[in-house]
Design a protein that fits this description.
Elements: H1 2-29, E1 32-35, H2 50-56, E2 61-65, E3 68-70, E4 74-76, E5 80-84, E6 88-90, E7 99-100, E8 107-115, E9 120-123, E10 126-127, E11 140-147, E12 151-154
Parallel strand pairs: 1-2, 2-5, 3-6, 4-8, 5-9, 6-10, 8-11, 9-12
Antiparallel strand pairs: 7-8
């Protein structure tokens, strides 16, 4: 009986390793879309705005954001990875309500709003809402907001 337990543990570990390898392989094989605000750092970039890249990206794509200042709010509603190079800054010049708080129902303005999407990973960005243009108590300012979504946020400065 003890041998079966050890065998079961080994099989379980093997399954976890294989699933992790498959997830990594999918990411490696994902379409990479390059974004550069002025096409100076990355002259071969397909887009000059993150939102344009998000809108054009197929599910599972990786959007690589080159160093620069991206003056926009971003809405994501599909499976994506957004990877910012060192110095990639999201700095909306003015922010408008793009969602509502699920508990209070109050309007929110998020620099990056992820809605109804799974496996959305956001990493390596600087998100700066200082020039948000919000003068009153509403909408509520958020850096990154996930609603009815899943994913990972890592190595960002908000």
């Amino acid at each position: 009986m003890k041998t079966l337990g050890t065998l079961g543990t080994r099989v379980g570990v093997l399954i976890i390793v294989v699933l992790g390898w498959c997830a990594a392989a999918q990411r490696v094989n994902a379409q990479v879309i390059l974004v550069d605000d002025d096409k100076v750092q990355c002259p071969t970039a397909q887009f000059t705005s993150i939102q344009q890249a998000v809108d054009s990206a197929p599910d599972g794509a990786v959007i690589r954001v080159c160093p620069g200042t991206y003056k926009e709010q971003v809405t994501i509603n599909k499976t994506l990875t957004i990877h910012g190079d060192n110095g990639a800054i999201v700095l909306p010049p003015s922010m408008t309500a793009n969602g509502s708080d699920p508990v209070s129902g109050e309007a929110i303005a998020a620099a990056i709003f992820v809605e109804n999407a799974s496996n959305v990973d956001i990493e390596g960005l600087i998100i700066d809402g200082t020039n948000n243009g919000i003068s009153g108590c509403a909408p509520d300012l958020r850096g990154i907001e996930y609603q009815n979504s899943s994913g990972r946020i890592a190595h960002n400065a908000v």
